[in-house]
Amino acid sequence: MAEQKGSLSELVAQETSQLLQEASERTAQTVIAHTTKYNDAYAAIDKIIDGFWSRLPYICIALVVFTIFYLLSKLFKFFIRKTLTERSYSKQNLVLVLNRVGSSAIVFFGFLIAMVISVPGFTPGQLMSALGIGSVAIGFAFKDIFQNLLSGILILLGEPFKIGDDIIVGGMEGTVEDIQIRATFLRSPDGRRIVIPNATVYTSAVTVNTAYQRRRCEFNIGIGYEADVQKAKNLILEILNQEPTILSQPSFSVNVTTLADFSIHLSVRWWINTTETSIATSVSKIQEVVIEQFNQNEISIPYPIQEIKIQHDSISNASALTHKQTT
Predict the structure, then answer these.
(1) Which class would CATH give 159-208?
(2) Which among 197, 160, 205 has a CA at the least distance from the CA of 180?
(3) How far is CA 84 from the centre of its chain?
C-alpha cells in the first residue's frame, strides 16, 4: 500500500514538473518573441535618431543658407526701392513687380538649395517631376489663383493705372490703394474697401479718372423761352472767363442743346487742372454764380407748369346735369 502511494506521488510530481517545464518554455518563447519585436522597434528608433544626429549639421547649414537668402530678398527689396524711386523716370508698378516677383524668386531659390543640403539625394528635378505629375489636378484646383496671378503680373508690367489713381472698373469706383498679385484694392468715395480679383480688372474696361491733370467739367441749365438767350450765354461766358481756376485752353463754351417743353437747355463746358481744384468744387462754384447772375439780370430758370382750361359751356352742362340728378 505504501509502495503504491509512493509511486503515485512520484508520478504526480513528475507530471507537475513536466507541466511547469512546458509553461516555462512557452513563457520564455513569448518573452523572447516580444523582446525581438521591441528590439526591432528600438533598433528602428535608434537608426532614426542616429540618422538625425548625422544629418543635424547639414540641417543647420541648410537653415543658415535659407536665412541668408531670405535676408538677401529683403536687401533686394531695399535696393530696388532705393534705386528706382529716386529716379524721375521710374515706374511705381515696376518697383512692385521687382519687389514681389524678384524677392519671391530669391527665397524659392534659397529653399531649393536648403533642401539639397538637408535631404540626402534630393534634386530640383525631383520636385519638378512631382509637380509635373500633379500639374493637371493642380491646374484645375488653382485655375482662378493662377489666372489672378498672371493678370496681376500683366497689370503691374503694363501699368494701365498706378497706386493713388481714381478708377472705375465693373461699375465700382474708388482710389487704388494697392495692387497685389492676387487682387487690386480700392478705397471707395464713402470710405469702404473694395477688393477686385485681378482677372476681373484685366478683362474689364477700366476708366482712369486721374490719368490726366486736365479734366472737363460741364452742367446743363434751362432758361425760359421769353429770356434773351444771347444775354444768358454772355453772362455765363463772363463768369467762366473771370474764374481763375478755369483753363483758357481748351476754351470753354456755352451752347444751346435742347428745346424742351418748358425751357431752352444750355450746355456749359470748361476745363480745369485737377492739381488746383476738383471737378465737384468747380461745378458747384460756377452753378452758384450763374444762379446769382441770372437772378440779378432777371433771366428765369423755369420749372414745369401745366395750364388747365375749362370751357363755360361745359361748366353749364355739368351744373344742369347735377341739378337734374338732385331733383
Answers:
(1) mainly beta
(2) 197
(3) 25
Dmax over CA atoms of the chain, in Å, equals 161
CB 327 within 8 A of CB 321: no
Q: Give, as one character, the DSSP assignment of residue 102.
A: I
What's this model's pTM, rounded to 2 decimal places?
A: 0.56
For residues 129 and 123, what is the distance between their CA atoms, to the nearest angstrom? 10
For residues 50 and 115, the answer to whether their CB atoms sit within 8 Å is no
Q: Which residue has the higher pLDDT, 317 or 323?
A: 317
Helix spans in the chain (H): 2-84, 92-97, 103-118, 124-133, 135-141, 143-158, 198-203, 229-242, 279-296, 312-326
Name which residue leads in pLDDT, 209 or 146.
209
Q: Name the amino acid, one letter, at 63.
A: L
The dihedral through the CA atoms of 36, 40, 41, 45 has a sign that is: positive
Consecutive H or E run containing 209: none
**Digit-coded pLDDT (tens) for 83-115:** 666 554 456 666 666 677 778 788 888 888 888
- Where do you find CATH 3.30.70.100 in the chain? 214-296
Is the domain spanning 214-296 CATH 3.30.70.100? The answer is yes
Asked if 107 contacts 71 with a C-beta cutoff of 8 angstroms, the reply is no
Report which residue type is found at 233.
Answer: K
CA distance 235 to 281: 20
Domain limits, CATH 2.30.30.60, in the chain: 159-208
Q: Contact 189/199 with Cβ under 8 angstroms?
A: no
